[in-house]
Amino acid sequence: MRKTLSLILIVLACVIDFQASAQIVASSLHRPPILTTTAIIEVYDQNQLKGIVLIERGKAPFGKALPGGKVEYGETVEQAVRREMQEEVGLELKDLKQFHVYSDPNRDFRHHSVEVTHLAKSDRTPQAGDDAAQAWIVPLDQIPWDQMAFDHAQILKDYLAYRQGQQDKMMLNP
Length: 174
Known about the structure:
Layout: H1 2-29, E1 34-45, E2 48-57, E3 64-65, E4 68-70, H2 77-89, E5 94-102, E6 113-122, E7 132-138, H3 152-163
Parallel strand pairs: 1-6
Antiparallel strand pairs: 1-2, 1-4, 2-3, 2-7, 5-6
């Protein structure tokens, strides 16, 4: 009886140890991408487009970028983009629309991120805050293509194609 009980305890200990090891392996294999959001903010002065908002990143990776950031646990993507624009450039968004999702695993060398890009409008001047060292309005013909961080040059090329009538660039029904 004692040997049987000892054998049962040993088997039970092995099963528990195996389950714990399996959970560690499974959790290391499943690493979901980080969800981020950005906005292409068109700034208008009396119905005249002045340009879009770009920032100079204050943290690595440095460069010029669309304002944006991570979606926090418990918030919607729409809440996140509005919060991020307040924090990063001090702007409230008008006419917010989802533009496109960018998910190439190599779009950010630090980690795999999935970015939900939005279109929005404003009639105010951006003010740098949070992760932005600078924020300004850039006319569409003066976008600094070779200085853009991440895949934001591609995002802006898609945006310009959309503005020129290529409706397939926008995800109308995501």
